[in-house]
Amino acid sequence: RAAERAFPFFEQYPVELAVLILPEGLDPADFVLARGDQAGEELAVLAERATPLLEYMVDRQLVGKDLSSPEAQTRAVRSVVEQILSRIKDPVLQEKYAVITADKVGRTTVSETAVLLELQRLRPGERSSGSEEDKGARRVPPWQRVEREALKLLIQVPRLCADRMLELGPDRFATPGYRAAFELI
Predict the structure, then answer these.
(1) Residues 138, 142, 148, 154, Cα dihedral to 10°
(2) Model pLDDT for residues 20-79, shown as the tens digit of each residue
(3) Is 46 exposed, middle or buried (0-12, 13-18, 19+ CB in 10 A)?
Protein backbone atom coordinates (compact mmCIF):
# COMPACT_ATOMS: atom_id res chain seq x y z
CA ARG A 1 0.00 0.00 0.00
CA ALA A 2 2.88 2.36 0.64
CA ALA A 3 3.90 2.00 -3.02
CA GLU A 4 0.44 3.04 -4.17
CA ARG A 5 0.63 6.11 -1.93
CA ALA A 6 4.07 6.93 -3.42
CA PHE A 7 2.79 7.01 -7.01
CA PRO A 8 1.50 10.63 -6.85
CA PHE A 9 4.91 11.65 -5.45
CA PHE A 10 6.57 9.95 -8.43
CA GLU A 11 4.29 11.88 -10.79
CA GLN A 12 5.28 15.18 -9.22
CA TYR A 13 9.04 14.65 -8.79
CA PRO A 14 11.46 13.05 -11.26
CA VAL A 15 12.92 10.40 -8.96
CA GLU A 16 13.44 6.69 -9.41
CA LEU A 17 11.48 4.75 -6.83
CA ALA A 18 11.50 1.01 -6.25
CA VAL A 19 9.20 -1.24 -4.26
CA LEU A 20 10.54 -3.75 -1.80
CA ILE A 21 8.11 -6.37 -0.52
CA LEU A 22 9.15 -7.57 2.91
CA PRO A 23 8.56 -11.18 3.96
CA GLU A 24 5.48 -12.04 5.98
CA GLY A 25 3.92 -8.67 5.17
CA LEU A 26 5.99 -6.91 7.83
CA ASP A 27 6.50 -3.17 7.75
CA PRO A 28 10.16 -2.02 7.89
CA ALA A 29 10.19 -1.35 11.64
CA ASP A 30 8.66 -4.74 12.48
CA PHE A 31 11.09 -6.43 10.06
CA VAL A 32 14.09 -4.89 11.85
CA LEU A 33 12.68 -5.82 15.26
CA ALA A 34 12.00 -9.40 14.16
CA ARG A 35 15.38 -9.92 12.42
CA GLY A 36 17.61 -8.07 14.87
CA ASP A 37 21.27 -7.90 13.84
CA GLN A 38 20.65 -9.73 10.55
CA ALA A 39 18.08 -7.18 9.37
CA GLY A 40 20.61 -5.00 7.54
CA GLU A 41 22.11 -7.88 5.56
CA GLU A 42 18.70 -9.34 4.76
CA LEU A 43 17.41 -5.94 3.60
CA ALA A 44 20.44 -5.55 1.33
CA VAL A 45 19.73 -8.93 -0.28
CA LEU A 46 16.03 -8.13 -0.65
CA ALA A 47 16.81 -4.67 -2.09
CA GLU A 48 18.60 -6.31 -5.02
CA ARG A 49 15.22 -7.69 -6.08
CA ALA A 50 13.29 -4.43 -5.61
CA THR A 51 10.81 -3.66 -8.40
CA PRO A 52 10.64 -0.23 -10.07
CA LEU A 53 7.54 1.62 -8.84
CA LEU A 54 5.93 1.87 -12.29
CA GLU A 55 6.37 -1.83 -12.98
CA TYR A 56 4.88 -2.60 -9.58
CA MET A 57 1.91 -0.34 -10.35
CA VAL A 58 1.37 -2.08 -13.71
CA ASP A 59 1.49 -5.45 -11.94
CA ARG A 60 -1.00 -4.26 -9.31
CA GLN A 61 -3.34 -3.02 -12.02
CA LEU A 62 -3.25 -6.45 -13.70
CA VAL A 63 -3.61 -8.57 -10.54
CA GLY A 64 -6.73 -10.68 -10.78
CA LYS A 65 -7.56 -9.54 -14.31
CA ASP A 66 -8.80 -12.17 -16.73
CA LEU A 67 -6.38 -12.23 -19.67
CA SER A 68 -7.80 -15.29 -21.41
CA SER A 69 -9.59 -13.54 -24.27
CA PRO A 70 -8.81 -10.64 -26.60
CA GLU A 71 -11.65 -8.64 -25.05
CA ALA A 72 -10.32 -9.21 -21.54
CA GLN A 73 -6.81 -8.29 -22.65
CA THR A 74 -8.15 -5.11 -24.23
CA ARG A 75 -9.86 -4.15 -20.97
CA ALA A 76 -6.66 -4.87 -19.05
CA VAL A 77 -4.55 -2.76 -21.43
CA ARG A 78 -7.03 0.12 -21.24
CA SER A 79 -7.00 -0.08 -17.46
CA VAL A 80 -3.19 0.13 -17.32
CA VAL A 81 -3.09 2.94 -19.90
CA GLU A 82 -5.75 5.00 -18.14
CA GLN A 83 -4.55 4.44 -14.58
CA ILE A 84 -0.76 4.29 -15.02
CA LEU A 85 0.75 5.04 -18.44
CA SER A 86 -1.28 8.18 -19.16
CA ARG A 87 0.09 9.69 -15.94
CA ILE A 88 3.75 9.27 -16.97
CA LYS A 89 5.03 12.57 -18.33
CA ASP A 90 8.21 11.24 -19.99
CA PRO A 91 7.33 9.88 -23.47
CA VAL A 92 10.36 7.57 -23.53
CA LEU A 93 9.36 6.08 -20.19
CA GLN A 94 5.77 5.76 -21.44
CA GLU A 95 7.01 3.79 -24.44
CA LYS A 96 9.17 1.50 -22.28
CA TYR A 97 6.22 0.74 -20.02
CA ALA A 98 3.99 0.18 -23.06
CA VAL A 99 6.41 -2.62 -24.01
CA ILE A 100 6.37 -3.98 -20.45
CA THR A 101 2.56 -3.86 -20.40
CA ALA A 102 2.35 -5.74 -23.70
CA ASP A 103 4.70 -8.40 -22.31
CA LYS A 104 2.68 -8.79 -19.12
CA VAL A 105 -0.70 -8.92 -20.87
CA GLY A 106 0.54 -11.39 -23.45
CA ARG A 107 3.06 -10.43 -26.12
CA THR A 108 1.74 -13.03 -28.53
CA THR A 109 -1.64 -11.31 -28.63
CA VAL A 110 -0.99 -7.68 -27.61
CA SER A 111 1.79 -5.65 -29.19
CA GLU A 112 3.41 -2.59 -27.70
CA THR A 113 2.11 -0.73 -30.76
CA ALA A 114 -1.44 -1.48 -29.67
CA VAL A 115 -0.66 -0.19 -26.17
CA LEU A 116 0.93 2.97 -27.63
CA LEU A 117 -2.10 3.53 -29.85
CA GLU A 118 -4.37 3.21 -26.84
CA LEU A 119 -2.15 5.66 -24.97
CA GLN A 120 -2.35 8.09 -27.88
CA ARG A 121 -6.13 7.71 -27.93
CA LEU A 122 -6.23 8.78 -24.32
CA ARG A 123 -4.38 12.05 -24.79
CA PRO A 124 -3.31 14.04 -21.72
CA GLY A 125 -6.36 15.60 -20.13
CA GLU A 126 -8.67 12.86 -21.38
CA ARG A 127 -9.43 10.67 -18.42
CA SER A 128 -12.07 8.01 -18.23
CA SER A 129 -13.81 10.04 -15.52
CA GLY A 130 -15.04 12.59 -18.09
CA SER A 131 -18.67 12.51 -19.11
CA GLU A 132 -19.70 10.93 -22.39
CA GLU A 133 -20.83 14.35 -23.58
CA ASP A 134 -17.36 15.79 -22.92
CA LYS A 135 -15.70 12.90 -24.73
CA GLY A 136 -17.92 13.38 -27.77
CA ALA A 137 -17.13 17.09 -27.87
CA ARG A 138 -13.39 16.49 -28.28
CA ARG A 139 -12.44 16.56 -31.93
CA VAL A 140 -9.52 14.67 -33.40
CA PRO A 141 -7.83 16.63 -36.20
CA PRO A 142 -8.30 15.03 -39.65
CA TRP A 143 -4.55 14.51 -40.18
CA GLN A 144 -4.38 12.61 -36.90
CA ARG A 145 -7.24 10.33 -38.00
CA VAL A 146 -5.36 9.63 -41.26
CA GLU A 147 -2.20 8.75 -39.31
CA ARG A 148 -4.17 6.43 -37.01
CA GLU A 149 -5.89 4.69 -39.91
CA ALA A 150 -2.56 4.22 -41.72
CA LEU A 151 -1.09 2.59 -38.62
CA LYS A 152 -4.13 0.36 -38.25
CA LEU A 153 -3.66 -0.86 -41.81
CA LEU A 154 0.06 -1.44 -41.32
CA ILE A 155 -0.65 -3.49 -38.20
CA GLN A 156 -3.77 -5.37 -39.29
CA VAL A 157 -2.91 -6.09 -42.93
CA PRO A 158 0.89 -5.85 -43.25
CA ARG A 159 1.08 -7.78 -46.53
CA LEU A 160 -1.24 -5.25 -48.16
CA CYS A 161 1.04 -2.38 -47.14
CA ALA A 162 4.48 -4.00 -47.51
CA ASP A 163 5.38 -2.05 -50.67
CA ARG A 164 4.34 1.26 -49.09
CA MET A 165 6.40 0.67 -45.94
CA LEU A 166 9.56 1.64 -47.85
CA GLU A 167 7.99 4.93 -48.95
CA LEU A 168 6.74 5.74 -45.47
CA GLY A 169 9.01 6.86 -42.71
CA PRO A 170 8.53 8.03 -39.16
CA ASP A 171 8.91 11.64 -40.31
CA ARG A 172 5.57 11.28 -42.14
CA PHE A 173 3.78 11.10 -38.77
CA ALA A 174 3.25 14.44 -37.02
CA THR A 175 1.79 12.88 -33.88
CA PRO A 176 4.67 11.77 -31.59
CA GLY A 177 2.85 8.67 -30.34
CA TYR A 178 2.01 7.55 -33.86
CA ARG A 179 5.59 8.22 -34.98
CA ALA A 180 6.83 6.02 -32.12
CA ALA A 181 4.30 3.33 -33.01
CA PHE A 182 5.43 3.37 -36.66
CA GLU A 183 9.06 2.94 -35.59
CA LEU A 184 8.07 -0.19 -33.65
CA ILE A 185 6.40 -1.85 -36.62
Answers:
(1) 170
(2) 888 887 888 888 888 888 888 998 898 889 999 999 999 999 999 989 888 899 899 999
(3) middle
